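Aim 2 progress update. The chain analyzed this quarter is reproduced below.
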Amino acid sequence: MPGNKGVVYEGPGKVEVHELDYPDFELKDGPGVNPGNVGRKLPHAAVVKTVATNICGSDQHMVRGRTTAPQGLVLGHEITGEVVETGPGVEFIKAGDLVSVPFNISCGRCRNCKEGKTGICEHVNPDRPGSAYGYVDMGGWIGGQAQYALVPYADWNLLKFPDKDRAMEKILDLAMLSDIFPTGYHGCVTAGVQPGSTVYIAGAGPVGLAAAASALLLGAAVVVVGDLNEQRLEQARSFGCETVDVSQGEPKDQIEQIIGEPEVDCAVDAVGFEARGHGREAQTEHPATVLNTLMDITRAGGALGIPGLYVTGDPGAADEAAKQGSLSIRIGLGWAKSHSFTTGQCPVMRYNRRLMQAILHDRVQIAKAVNATPIPLDEAPRGYQEFDEGAARKYVLDPNGYLGAAA
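Predicted structure tokens:
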């Protein structure tokens, strides 16, 4: 049995690479594992040798100490890998298959899964519907920033790439299928982006950049990306987006200068609960800022896609209400303008196969759009630090040397 190493949360601001147990076909007790999941047998699972596993902005929320994540949690929910072993209940996935792992774990059997709502599976998390690898309050499934990871319900969850050699040629692009590309795309689809749409994307981190690339793929006429970080705004401009620097003031005036009117057809929140204010308030957290701004600038009858993360427990929030996820949202404004809102985890399987085909047939260069940057697994602490400092990169960990990442 081979060894295993992975990235472990050691408390606010600190991650380390530790030796881990090789995956077993039973969910064991450990940090963050829900008692109702301890001892759960997994004959339907597959062990994946990780080819690529990404650092996500959602991971950063935990590492900053802005969630109730326990010390010792193995991180990582964006996994691409090669199947090396399957349980006796796996029928169609085989050892040697190169696969993408949707970040949300789903059973394929419950009502929500059968309706395509795989982000809120009813059977994988005893706390509430919805689960993910290596994430707080998500049932305790072991994270995938590791050399090996276990994927339950493998026949259902895994997306097999049809040609391994062809897939490896585009592996950095395909590594985005586990989360950020479908998540950004979901934000645009739920916001109603169509050919000719004018679109505002709040946030130029990896999910915001993926949303911007998705809006262009969907045929948007103008995609405007707002952020405080000039490097990230430059990255958005590199593939055809317009940008606004929200540290200079409210986006509305800058949007009017770009498209000729102070509103857009569609808007996407790719920031979430750690949002900062605009203009003179740019260095202060105002968690409802993005949502209120999007309602202000989206036309009446428009829609907001909200893939940005909002939590029910934020110990680092500035006030008691925000610590429980209660924000001062101008819902009356959204109601008056007949806005539609879509929140929650992206149901990755709704999109990943079609987005895979778009990548394989050169319709999109998502790795270039998000500036995907491979680094060795042992360099994960550096990747987390630089990403937290605002690096305009999507860090991709290379635990087993498939990507040739240099230290």
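The first strand starts at residue 4 and ends at 9. The first helix runs from residue 57 to 63. These observations will guide the mutagenesis experiments scheduled for the next reporting period.
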